[in-house]
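Anyone able to model this chain together with 4'-deoxy-4'-aminopyridoxal-5'-phosphate?
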Amino acid sequence: MTVITNHMPTAELQALDAAHHMHPFTANAELAAKGARVITGAKGVYLTDSEGERILDGMAGLWCVNIGYGRDELAEVAVRQMRELPYYNTFFQTTHVPAIALSAKLAELAPGDLNHVFYASGGSEANDTNIRLVRTYWAEKGKPSKKIIISRKNAYHGSTVGSASLGGMAGMHAQGGLPIPGIHHIDQPNWWAEGGDMTPEEFGLERARQLEQAILDLGEDNVAAFIAEPVQGAGGVIVAPDSYWPEIQRICDKYEILLIADEVICGFGRTGNWFGSQTMNIRPDIMTIAKGLSSGYQPIGGSIVRDEVAEVIGRTEFNHGYTYSAHPVAAAVALKNLEIIEEEDLIGHVQKVAAPYLKQKWEALTDHPLVGEARIVGMMASIALTPDKEARAPFATEPGTVGYICRERCFANNLIMRHVGDRMIIAPPLVISPEEVDVLIDRARIALDETLDELKRQDML
Ligand code: PMP
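re: yes, here you go
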């Protein structure tokens, strides 16, 4: 058998990858022709590739490596736990110490009486749990008709059939017969693209009141929950106007609709608090967690629920669970990750050092001819590319064409920045230093200049 290692020539690794590995969210034939970049290692905020290039990871992987790469403590905890108890489940009247310790820690960190955790291997599974959880909750309370979950267009809640249905990504719904019944989508609070002549405040209220209208149209007795990301991540780091969340909270309270905050990206320091719900001042009944929970070092996610929700669910046997719910190695690594965030005061670092510095540099990008608005909350940020800032105009080309060019220019300049349509987004590791922010911004500016040159060359402006 051929032994495949980091030391093989890049072209050989790429050829094997193209032959056997199907990449997620990728046109695989197109990638095969081009060759995927082979990532061989990482430390802090930098990735290394098979050609020895150092790439600044402006996306913390997939918004998850909050504490940065290369933390030996997590590797040591994983090894210790694998030796002691590599696997056991908590289905049939057993438990184990990593599950107990992580749950107690999450109950301590989560706001209010969000004190009970149901585990999954990631965010998609956790949101699938939420669909069954909220419906079971209302059925147990004698209101089985409360089944519909209201969500938002352009939301991302995962890739499984259930979670992708909760999500509002048109491109995902177009494949595989989604959404499943019982999910209703309202518009997103994206003022830049959809606000028209309204002020951001007026627009925020208008979008929040779509929730009330949907509840009235569908019937209060038929609606179980509303789910949303505190800051829409994969939708393009869309930050709602200030008027939005207070109105959403009022509506959920008035009509007794469970509020699910999908904290998969926003949780664990990303927005400058432990949870995005704290930053947005909302009181969810359920929070979806994953990603930063383990800083991506192990696959783990879950749903944290309030006392009353857990009490109602606990009255019955909830016929739901995953082989890897509360996996002991993942739970032990997650716990250590939370301890590092706490002991190194990474949330303080975000609040006092990294986010204020990044904000100043990021917002200054609006002096670039291609950059319309710049938005940032904590360590997640976006810029809208536009041919006309005053008109907040989209490009004449297919949405995403310019964003893709810009992403390619970033990649060529050893910066990972993602594009969502023609918005460019970042979410770097929380540990990033001001010097590293300077590198990120310098590379982003070069990429923007090169994008502008390319657009001129192709006559796309
Ligand atoms: N919810 C949100 C808000 C997410 O951003 C993601 C992943 N990007 C998910 C859910 C799905 O999580 P996973 O990929 O771990 O299944």
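The longest strand covers residues 114-120.
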